[in-house]
Structures are given as structure tokens and as C-alpha cells.
Automatic annotation (TrEMBL), chain A:
Allows the formation of correctly charged Asn-tRNA(Asn) or Gln-tRNA(Gln) through the transamidation of misacylated Asp-tRNA(Asn) or Glu-tRNA(Gln) in organisms which lack either or both of asparaginyl-tRNA or glutaminyl-tRNA synthetases. The reaction takes place in the presence of glutamine and ATP through an activated phospho-Asp-tRNA(Asn) or phospho-Glu-tRNA(Gln). It comes from the Bacteria. InterPro entries: Asn/Gln-tRNA_amidoTrfase_suB/E, Asn/Gln-tRNA_Trfase_suB/E_cat, Asn/Gln_amidotransferase, Asn/Gln_tRNA_amidoTrase-B-like, GatB, GatB_C_1, GatB_Yqey_C_2, Gln-tRNA_amidoTrfase_suB_CS. Belongs to the GatB/GatE family. GatB subfamily. Residues 329-476 form the Asn/Gln amidotransferase domain. Pfam families: GatB_N, GatB_Yqey. It comes from Jingyaoa shaoxingensis. Its EC number is 6.3.5.-. It is an enzyme of class 6 (ligase). It catalyses: L-glutamyl-tRNA(Gln) + L-glutamine + ATP + H2O = L-glutaminyl-tRNA(Gln) + L-glutamate + ADP + phosphate + H(+); L-aspartyl-tRNA(Asn) + L-glutamine + ATP + H2O = L-asparaginyl-tRNA(Asn) + L-glutamate + ADP + phosphate + 2 H(+). Heterotrimer of A, B and C subunits. Keywords: ATP-binding, Ligase, Nucleotide-binding, Protein biosynthesis. The gene is gatB. This is Aspartyl/glutamyl-tRNA(Asn/Gln) amidotransferase subunit B. The keyword Chloroplast does not apply.
From TrEMBL, chain B:
Keywords: ATP-binding, Ligase, Nucleotide-binding, Protein biosynthesis. It comes from the Bacteria. The keyword Nucleotide-binding applies. It comes from Jingyaoa shaoxingensis. This is Glutamyl-tRNA(Gln) amidotransferase subunit A. The keyword ATP-binding applies.
């Protein structure tokens, strides 16, 4: 009988924090900007410059640690990780090794197999590196230090995950917690959330872990799932052939669906970590912790429960709406104005998600205001516009955040409620389509649909479909 | 010499009263530099035009009553490890040969705001690593008392410049005695303040947890006055302290009647030159006669200071100096193949042997498997040394001892045996490990005609106590210890 294998996975997740300024200087963290414009002597490693810790970084790290049930090191320190590379202007990265800010936490995840906890080994604060640009034309490398010193937290899990599904559930859980806290936007594609996957396999029932490999910087949930499947298969194949798995860092090529060795443990660097003498220890008082706890916003789990109780919407809607803090915020704000949760939810669940998918965007990219969505719901409810016009207007709201009342007015999209005008249009349609009238009278109920369509076309979509139906039937059945 | 005999504070008064113009003061220094530099070589960079231009600006502000401080218009020299915007800053290393900072060290900025006129940058041991100023990539500095001898180090250029009248005062930095030892060798006065008193922003780091900037002057009054100006709380330096007791000149009082002074027996033992010992004990006698209680005591742990210091300082230096890689600024090798070869060649060609030795030592003590045995043990030793001082300061207001085991050695004598050179730091480095303030005051001249300094150490934040003791000593001493006239020295050098 073939051997049964179990996959053991731990993650190192880097999250870029949403501070306005860098971790050790006052430079902007804004994305873009011409190369080396968001820099100063500190984040370019000029001689004699000194780092000064941005307190907001500690606040965010603390908030994430508390939300993931971590213990807090109330006396924590920064260490230098020494290695030479041009994207790292000092040739050491300021990070935390000996006394990271948070440790021993856990988060609950849910998969098809049920609920379980994933342990968090530690969370530490550190600085990001710059970006190397290789200029093929000039045959040289250039470096942009705009990202140098952008604050990161690294969340190191315990090796508690056993499948790609659990990994995705864990990452999604972290993403939601951090987004809800406002500590980061956690966009995998843009690199504000990045995951390194540590994976080993062992025979089911084995007590010891197998030798693990590390796969670096995989930038989508799907790629992570594929990388896990690919690496699991590769390791099992080695073991089946009686070959050892080598402890090494591998790079996952998502196009070729295969990982390549980058460096093995033998040539692993000695980072010569030691406490950074330019920074003083961070003392986190009980009061500080209480203050961060006090301002902690409602997290996803609590929000989901509240939605189920407070709003008359299906549980499924509540799940989807709360899966993005941004979308949930729009839902609540719009509902507060129009008092029609189900209608607001429908616009978000159907049209919004459809348009996002079409454009390849995330819920975080929604740019319309809840006021305009609420107004659209009200216009529809009042019968000022009909549902097909409403759809057209919504697309405009989605794209340009137009004010629906103004847009409807300017484009003359109000439903025509003048029954006389409607009746005469319908009479014209009936007169012009004798064949359809004959079909209807001959028992083909469907023929009325064609006549309704013709009427709506003649009315440029502004008629109320129910009234059209009613009048048509009156005329035809007369 | 005339004008050049004045101390910084005396000159400041004359400038204020209009008796001397700032330009005259600057010209006096520039003339002396012209005369003495070919022999002494205290400077790496001399900014003649900049100083003359600044002299006019400062004079105008003094005339308008906008600058009224004691140092307004007084010419100063800055050790070449402090950044000054627009002025070449080399750390006496080839690797920073072409480096011109865009920012100014906070301590220098404080001086500029007080109306200082900067003459240039003084020579030093490369990256402040050395005790003789012989490891400079720009040639040695010679001792103004006798050019056959070294000025000490690493702030040898600053101390020699002050002694030779090539400036009225200077800034130095002290990581393991780099202000106090050369002050002793050059017969000038220098203070290393409590760690955190003067901002390190813009000071090119050697051992970050030990580095402090301090004044080098002609007497205690000058040093107290300068320290009062450069001390400040700086938000750009996380280790900078917010002190409210920086009115150091208030301690310029000739009175030690309430003071208890301790002399560590450990500082008078083997290796100490008998002439130095005699001069130091004579200085203690002066203070005793002035009313202080003077006792000998056992400090303990003195032998552990040197290994602990060289472990910690080298570890920090190995990391601090990583940024000098030829990528962003400074020296880059002419020919190389690929990134790693570029790093290797630039650093091999850019750093001198003493710097390389300490980078290797530091990298070793931090490497995995050795970190606990060396670096962590050194940190524990540092903590124990601090405890030993805490205990001593529970009894004594001031600790008195020599600044160095000998007077200035001859050029070339020390570098051949680095271990022996390291041992020469025995009296000065504990002060840095414990973060204490310390100062050196001239106390005698040996049979070779070289000056001897006495070192006074205080508890953290107790600069005023050592300044008061030093001032009392200086005022009570019979004869003054003044560097011989440069013309005589230079004539002798020519012979």
C-alpha cells in the first residue's frame, strides 16, 4: 500500500503598515513618486544619520498582536540584521530578533474540515528595503530608496497548517484582522502583504517533522495554493525515490508551476544580529496597551454576528459584505441613510461584485460614496426611476461616483408617469404590430413581451414596466 | 604670540568689546596654520575662504547685537568625523575621500548658532580607531610640544591644533579616551560628557553606544563654556538626553571643601610611568590642600575593561562601517567584476589596516556561535563595571587618576604592537563603558619636556563636580602649563 503523507506548513507574512511616514525618519511612505524623492540622510544610510522610531508603527504592531491573542513584550528591542546588498543602504536591516514586540498568539480559522487554531510564534517590526532596477540598455543597476524604511511587521506562524486550504483561510483571517484595524490595506498583488511558505512533508502518524524548504514572496492566493501543491508533490517524490529533502530557500515560478533552489542552508548567511545601539528599548506600559485596546475597532467576527442580528439580510450576504472592511463600511453608511439594508446589500452583492470582477479589482478598490448608493436606492424605491435605468445609473456611480439625482435629471431618465402619453404610445405600438397582436390573441402569451419591449424602446426606457403591462393588457383584452 | 595666547572665552570678550575683530582672530589662526601645518599637520581640510566669509557675517551679527554669546566670533576646528554641510568630511579615511555631506552635525550646528567660525576639519585616526592619529589616510599629526612625538588619538588633530594655536578651541569625539588621552599628550583640557549629553546626529559612528562629542580647549573655563553650547536635547538622536542641568559654567567655582576624591589603587600599579604617577599624585595633593578629602580605594574590574571595550566597540564598528561599500558615496574601486568583487575591492582599497583589524574582530565576536561567548559576555562585563563605579560614587564625588600610562610616545612606536597600544587605553575606556563624564587637565611636564594630564571622572550627570574640581585645581596650581612657542618648536624641527 502506498504511503500516506501529511503536509506541514508554517508562514512568514510581511505586512506593510499604513503609516504616513517611514519607520525611522519623517519621509513619506506614499506609493509612486520619482525615484529617490521620498528619501533623506536616514533612509539612504548616509554617514552620521540616526534612526528615530515612529510610535505609530508600535501602535499598529501592538493592535495586530492584541487582535491575534498575542503576549506583548513590554520591553522590546530592535536588532541589526547585517547583510550586504545595494537595496539596503546601511547594509544592515533594523529588525527584531531577540525581543520581538509580540509572541505566542493564535487565530481561529474555518475550512471545510471545520474550525481550528493556528498558532502565532511572534510578530516583529522591521524596515523595508529599497528597489533595484536593472537597466538592460546601460547594462547597470540603479537603486530607488523610496521604499527603504517603509515599516513592516512580520507575522511568523507556528507550523500548524496542513493544507493549502488552511493556508488560504489563515491568510484571509490575517488580512481581515489587519484591514479592520486599519493597520494595512493588505494587497497581495501590490506587495503590501507578502507570504513566505515553509513546508515539509512527513508520513501520517510520524512524530518528527520532515526537512522543510522555504518558498519566498508568492504574490496571490492562487499562486500560494499552487506553490503548496507543487512543493508537496516534489518533496514526496524525493522521499519516494529515497532521496533526502534539502533544507533550502526556493523560488516559486508560477508560470512554470515549479520551484527552483535559490540557496541552501550551507551557504545561509550569518546575519550577525545584535541590538541596535542607535535605538533605545521600547517600553510598552499597561496604560499604552489599554489605550490601544480601547480604540480597537469591531473586528470581522463581531461585525458578522452583528449584521446577522441587526440587518434583515441573508447570512450569505453578511459573510460577503464583511469580507471586506471597506465594503462593510459602505454598506453600513448607505443603510444608515436609506434604511433599506436588503436593497443596499443587493447593489453591493450583485452589481458591484460583477463590475469589480469585470475590471479585475478588489472590494478595497470601490471608490463610490455610500451617500450616492443610498440616494439611488431611494430614487428606485420612490419609483422616480425604474430598475433598468437604475442599473445604468449605478454603473455611472461605480465608475465616476456621480450624484444619481443630478445624473437622472440631466439625462432625463425619470420614469414617465403620464398615463395619457403612455396609453397613446402603446396604442401606436399595437397598431404598428398587427402580427404580434394576432399572436397574442391566438394564445401566444409571450407575444406581449415583444410589445412591452417595443413600448419601452419608444419611451427610451423611462416607462414603468408594470404600467406598460397593465395598459397593454387592457388594450389587447378589450 | 599675542592674540593666540588668549583662551576662547578671553578672545570672545575682546571681540564683544570691539578690541579685536572676528577677521583679526581668524587671520591670526590662518597665519599660524600657514606657519605650523607643514610640521604639525593638524588639519585634513582647511576652509580659508569659508572662514573669512563667515567672519564677516558673524562680525555683522555681533555688531547688530544679534550674537552675544561667549563664543561669538571665536575660530574653531572640528574633528573630521563630524558632518558639516558642504564641507568635505573624510573621517581621515580614503573611503570617504570625496564625501561632502548635505547636513550638519547637531553639535556643530549649535556652535554655528552661537557664532562660531569654522576654520576646517582636523586630522584623526581613521574612523577614530587608534590612539596616535597615525592611522589617518592623510598622514600623521605631530605633537606641537615635540614633533618627534605623536599627539595621541584619535582626536589628535583637534588637540594638536589647540596646543599649537591653530585654532582657539576644537571639537573632538571620545569613544574610549579619544578626547582625554590626546588632551593629556598635548597639554590641553578636554571633556567627554555623560553619554547622551551631546547629540550624535551627524557624528560618523565608530562605537555608537560609547561615542560622545566633547570640547577641547585651553583651560577649564573654555571647556565648560563650549560644553554648555554644544549640549542639547536632539529628537534626531534617540539616545540624546533631555537634561535641564547643562549650565556647566555655574560650576566654575574655586571650592572643593565639601568634596571627597578617590584615587583607584588599580590606576597606580604596574605599567604606569613613575613621572606620570608623581605628577598625578601632586595634582591630588593640590586638591587636598584646597580642602578636599583625598583617599585611595580599590575600584576592581579594571583589567576587564580593555577586552570588554574592544569587543563592544569593534562589534558596533563592524556593523556601522558596512554602509561604506562604494555603492552610494565615497570611494569605489576603479576596476571590478560584479557586485561582490566591487564591494571587496572598494573596501579592501578604501580602509586602512587598523580599521580592517577592528572590522574583522567585530564580525568575529558577532558571528553565530561566538555571540554569547564574546559579545554578550562583554555586555555583562560592561554592566559589572558600571556597578563598580556606582559603588565608588556612593563614596566619592570625583575619581582622580592618570589619563594615560605614559606621556606621548614617539612616532611609529605604538602601531607595530597593536595590543600594547590597546593597553594604553586602560585608564580612559571604563568611563565610556559606564557612560560617565570625564575630563583631562594638564598637571605637569616630564623630563622629556612632554605634558602630563590628570583625569577626573564623575558619576553620570555630575559634570559640574569634575568641572569644579578641575577649575579649583587649575586656579590653585603654581605654574601654568603652556605649549612652547611654535616658532621655537618649528625651528627645532627644522634642525
Amino acid at each position: 500500500m502506498a504511503k500516506q503523507y501529511e503536509t506541514v506548513i508554517g508562514l512568514e507574512v510581511h505586512v506593510e503598515l499604513a503609516t504616513k511616514t517611514k519607520i525611522f525618519c519623517g519621509c513619506s511612505t506614499a506609493f509612486g513618486g520619482a525615484p529617490n524623492t521620498h528619501t533623506c540622510p536616514v533612509c539612504t544610510g548616509m554617514p552620521g544619520s540616526l534612526p528615530v522610531l515612529n510610535k505609530q508603527v508600535v501602535e499598529y504592531a501592538l493592535a495586530v498582536g492584541l487582535a491575534t491573542n498575542c503576549e506583548i513584550n513590554q520591553y522590546c528591542k530592535f536588532d541589526r540584521k547585517n547583510y550586504f546588498y545595494p537595496d539596503n543602504p546601511q547594509n544592515y536591516q533594523i529588525s527584531q530578533l531577540y525581543l520581538p514586540i509580540c509572541h505566542d498568539g493564535k487565530v481561529e480559522i474555518e475550512t471545510t474540515a471545520g474550525k481550528k487554531y493556528v498558532g502565532i510564534h511572534e510578530i516583529h517590526m522591521e524596515e523595508d528595503a529599497g528597489k533595484l532596477v536593472h537597466d538592460e540598455w546601460e547594462d547597470c543597476s540603479l537603486v530607488d530608496y523610496n521604499r527603504s524604511g517603509v515599516p513592516l511587521i512580520e507575522i511568523v506562524s507556528e507550523p500548524d497548517m496542513r493544507s493549502a486550504e488552511e493556508v488560504i483561510a489563515y491568510l484571509d483571517k490575517l488580512r481581515l484582522i489587519i484591514q479592520y484595524l486599519g493597520a494595512s490595506d493588505c494587497k497581495l498583488q501590490e506587495g503590501s502583504m507578502r507570504a513566505d511558505v515553509n513546508l515539509s512533508v512527513r508520513e501520517v502518524g510520524a512524530e518528527k517533522f520532515g526537512t522543510r524548504t522555504e518558498m519566498k514572496n508568492i504574490n496571490s492566493f492562487k499562486a500560494i495554493a499552487r506553490a503548496i501543491e507543487g512543493e508537496r508533490a516534489r518533496q514526496i517524490e524525493l522521499l519516494e525515490m529515497g532521496k533526502p529533502v534539502i533544507q533550502e530557500t526556493r523560488r516559486w515560478d508560477d508560470n512554470k508551476e515549479y520551484s527552483y533552489a535559490m540557496r541552501s542552508k550551507e551557504d545561509a548567511q550569518d546575519y550577525r544580529y545584535f541590538p541596535d545601539p542607535d535605538l533605545v528599548p521600547v517600553i510598552i506600559s499597561d496604560e499604552w496597551i489599554d489605550r490601544v485596546k480601547a480604540v480597537q475597532p469591531e473586528l470581522r467576527t463581531e461585525k458578522l454576528e452583528r449584521y446577522k442580528k441587526e440587518f434583515d439580510i441573508p447570512d450569505y450576504d453578511a459573510e460577503i459584505l464583511t469580507s471586506s472592511k471597506h465594503m462593510a463600511d459602505i454598506f453600513e453608511a448607505a443603510t444608515a441613510i436609506c434604511k433599506k439594508p436588503k436593497k443596499v446589500s443587493n447593489w453591493l452583492m450583485v452589481e458591484t461584485l460583477r463590475l469589480l470582477k469585470e475590471k479585475g479589482q478588489d472590494p478595497e478598490d470601490i471608490m463610490f460614496s455610500p451617500e450616492h448608493l443610498a440616494e439611488l436606492v431611494e430614487l428606485t424605491e420612490e419609483g422616480t426611476i425604474n430598475s433598468s435605468v437604475a442599473k445604468e445609473v449605478f454603473e455611472k456611480i461605480f465608475e465616476e461616483d456621480v450624484d444619481p439625482a443630478v445624473y437622472v435629471e440631466e439625462h432625463g431618465l425619470k420614469t414617465v408617469n403620464d398615463e395619457g402619453a403612455l396609453r397613446s404610445t402603446i396604442e401606436e405600438i399595437v397598431a404598428a404590430n398587427p402580427q404580434s397582436v394576432a399572436d397574442y390573441k391566438g394564445g401566444k402569451q409571450k407575444a406581449i413581451g415583444f410589445l412591452v419591449g417595443q413600448t419601452m424602446k419608444a419611451m427610451k426606457g423611462k416607462a414603468d414596466p408594470a404600467s406598460v403591462n397593465k395598459i397593454l393588457k387592457e388594450i389587447l383584452d378589450a | 604670540m599675542g592674540l593666540l595666547d588668549d583662551t576662547a572665552v578671553e578672545l570672545g570678550k575682546k571681540i564683544k568689546s570691539g578690541e579685536v575683530t572676528v577677521k583679526e582672530a581668524v587671520m591670526a589662526c590662518l597665519d599660524q596654520i600657514k606657519k605650523a601645518e607643514s610640521t604639525i599637520h593638524a588639519y585634513v581640510t582647511i576652509d580659508r575662504e569659508g572662514a573669512l566669509k563667515k567672519a564677516e557675517e558673524v562680525q555683522k551679527k555681533i555688531d547688530e547685537g544679534k550674537l552675544t554669546g561667549p563664543l561669538a566670533g571665536v575660530p574653531v576646528a572640528i574633528k573630521d568625523n563630524m558632518c558639516i554641510a558642504g564641507m568635505r568630511t573624510t573621517c581621515s579615511s580614503k573611503i570617504l575621500d570625496n564625501f561632502i555631506p548635505t547636513y550638519t552635525a547637531e553639535a556643530v550646528k549649535n556652535l554655528e548658532e552661537a557664532g562660531a567660525v569654522i576654520l576646517g576639519k582636523t586630522n584623526m585616526d581613521e574612523f577614530a580607531m587608534g590612539s596616535t592619529t597615525e592611522t589617518s589616510a592623510y598622514g600623521v599629526t605631530r605633537n606641537p610640544w615635540d614633533p618627534e612625538h605623536v599627539p595621541g588619538g584619535s582626536s589628535g588633530g583637534s588637540c594638536a591644533a589647540v596646543a599649537a594655536g591653530e585654532c582657539f578651541y576644537a571639537l573632538g569625539s571620545d569613544t574610549g579616551g579619544s578626547i582625554r588621552q590626546p588632551s593629556s599628550f598635548c597639554g590641553v583640557t578636554g571633556i567627554k560628557p555623560t553619554y547622551g549629553t551631546v547629540s550624535r546626529y551627524g557624528l560618523i559612528a565608530y562605537g555608537s553606544s560609547l561615542d560622545q562629542i566633547g570640547p577641547v580647549g585651553k583651560d577649564v573655563t573654555d571647556c565648560a563654556t563650549i560644553l554648555e553650547v554644544i549640549a542639547s536635547h536632539d529628537k534626531k538622536d534617540s539616545t540624546s538626553l533631555d537634561r535641564t542641568d547643562c549650565d556647566f559654567t555655574s560650576a566654575l567655582v574655586k571650592d572643593v571643601k565639601d568634596m571627597k576624591i578617590g584615587i583607584p589603587r588599580d590606576y597606580l600599579g604596574e605599567g604606569l610611568d613613575p613621572e606620570v604617577k608623581e605628577a598625578v599624585l601632586a595634582a591630588a595633593k593640590v586638591l587636598e590642600e584646597a580642602g578636599a578629602v583625598v583617599e585611595k580605594f580599590d575600584l576592581s574590574l579594571v583589567d576587564y575593561a580593555i577586552p570588554a571595550y574592544y569587543t563592544i566597540a569593534a562589534a558596533e564598528a563592524s556593523s556601522n562601517l558596512e554602509r561604506f561599500d562604494g555603492v552610494k558615496y565615497g570611494y569605489r574601486a576603479k576596476e571590478y567584476e560584479g557586485l561582490h568583487n566591487m564591494y571587496k575591492k572598494s573596501r579592501s582599497e578604501g580602509f586602512g589596516p587598523e580599521v580592517k583589524r577592528r572590522i574583522m574582530l567585530g564580525s568575529f565576536v558577532l558571528s553565530s556561535g561566538y555571540y554569547d561567548a564574546y559579545y554578550l559576555k562583554a555586555l555583562r562585563t560592561k554592566a559589572l563595571i558600571k556597578q563598580a563605579f556606582d559603588k565608588a560614587f556612593a563614596t566619592y564625588d570625583v575619581i582622580l587618576g592618570p589619563a594615560a600610562p605614559t606621556t606621548a610616545p614617539k612616532l611609529g612606536e605604538s602601531l607595530g604592537d597593536p595590543l600594547k597600544m590597546y593597553l594604553g587605553d586602560i585608564y580612559t575606556i571604563s568611563c565610556n563603558l559606564a557612560g560617565l563624564p570625564g575630563m583631562t587637565v594638564p598637571c605637569g611636564i616630564d623630563s622629556k619636556g612632554l605634558p602630563i594630564g590628570v583625569q577626573l571622572l564623575g558619576d553620570c550627570f555630575q559634570e559640574k563636580k569634575i568641572i569644579r574640581a578641575a577649575y579649583t585645581y587649575e586656579q590653585s596650581r603654581q605654574e601654568k602649563i603652556i605649549c612652547p612657542d611654535m616658532s621655537e618648536v618649528l625651528e627645532k624641527a627644522v634642525e
